[in-house]
Amino acid sequence: MTRTTDFELNRRDLMVSASACVATTMLPSSASAQAGAPTESPVTAKVSFRVNGESRALDLDLRTTLLDALREHLHLTGTKKGCDHGQCGACTVMVNGRRMVSCLSLAAMHEGDEITTIEGLGTPDRMHPMQDAFLKHDGYQCGYCTPGQIVSAVAVLAEVKAGIPSHVTADLTATPEASNAELRERMSGNLCRCGAYSNIAEAMTEVAGRPA
Length: 212
Fold this sequence. Notes:
The protein is of the alpha+beta class. The protein has 2 domains: 42-121, Beta-grasp domain (Ubiquitin-like (UB roll), Roll), CATH 3.10.20.30; 122-212, DNA polymerase, domain 1. Helices cover 41% and strands 13% of the residues. The chain contains 8 helices and 5 strands. Helix 5 (129-136) packs across helix 8 (197-208).
């Protein structure tokens, strides 16, 4: 009986001691608690560019993407953050007339550039022909990818007009045509989970036949 009681007491003491040790190791040392965790201020820089025809200057963390600069600092939320990995095209904008996904580019890289977002293409009372065509042909459903689709579509027609070939251009020496195959190939980087691709192609085909 005595041996059993001693064993139980020893086991209880052991459990208490073990718990105390675990709790102690989880607490920061007194030196660390007094000093506090070191913090580093982000490196910032002034960046100036033109957005939708207006000069804008920002003091940004150098890690800020162009997408976040537009959305979080300039409050131009028409440009959407989709995958944030450059794979969906929802964040497409035009930089110096060429389309690009803004989530993969740092804002600090665009000093002096001319940037166009969906807000710069048209307004509800004065829409761009591509915006009007998207409405006419129902080129959207949920609408989340639509700003990127429209900006990319406008840039695609400019690429075709400038004679820039794509992977499906048969004759690299000839001016490409805005064929269905060309439009679908060039727009393949803009994903639409609702599946409005045919309607988008119809809208682009209509605009390709008139000044945009």
